[in-house]
Amino acid sequence: MLSLIGNVLWFVLGGAAMGLAWWLAGLIALVSIVGIPWARACFVIGQFTFWPFGREAVSRSAVGRPDIGTGPLGLIGNVLWFLLLGVWLAIGHILAALANFVTIIGIPFGIQHLKLAVIAMAPIGMTIVDKRPAR
């Protein structure tokens, strides 16, 4: 229940704007065939950005699903990503975090924006999982 309240407040107070920014970055990445892996990551993380509470982003290798995105090619992909689009998403999340830190109720949202800024720097090789264990 607490996650639902947090997600609704998050969505209304800025999560929707940054989620749309992730999806816009995904559309930009789709312009070229080479950008499809980045676009997929943008859409997954964009959806996570809309409703982040109760879930977290982790490396796919940490959950037992290593692939090409978790190895050396993923590192190269993340460097290219950061230089082209990631820096702008990270700046957006940092600015949103600073705006949220102005109020006491916004502090948890600011912390979540900082976590998303880190993800924006290197999204390739990440996956979204529920925080609560599956029953």
From TrEMBL:
<feature type="transmembrane region" description="Helical">
    <location>
        <begin position="37"/>
        <end position="54"/>
    </location>
</feature>
<keyword id="KW-0812">Transmembrane</keyword>
<keyword id="KW-1133">Transmembrane helix</keyword>
<keyword id="KW-0472">Membrane</keyword>
<dbReference type="InterPro" id="IPR052937">
    <property type="entry name" value="Inner_membrane_protein"/>
</dbReference>
<keyword id="KW-0997">Cell inner membrane</keyword>
<feature type="transmembrane region" description="Helical">
    <location>
        <begin position="75"/>
        <end position="99"/>
    </location>
</feature>
<feature type="transmembrane region" description="Helical">
    <location>
        <begin position="7"/>
        <end position="31"/>
    </location>
</feature>
<dbReference type="InterPro" id="IPR005185">
    <property type="entry name" value="YccF"/>
</dbReference>
<protein>
    <recommendedName>
        <fullName>Inner membrane protein YccF</fullName>
    </recommendedName>
</protein>
<feature type="transmembrane region" description="Helical">
    <location>
        <begin position="105"/>
        <end position="129"/>
    </location>
</feature>
<dbReference type="GO" id="GO:0005886">
    <property type="term" value="C:plasma membrane"/>
</dbReference>
<dbReference type="InterPro" id="IPR031308">
    <property type="entry name" value="UCP028777"/>
</dbReference>
<keyword id="KW-1003">Cell membrane</keyword>
<dbReference type="Pfam" id="PF03733">
    <property type="entry name" value="YccF"/>
</dbReference>
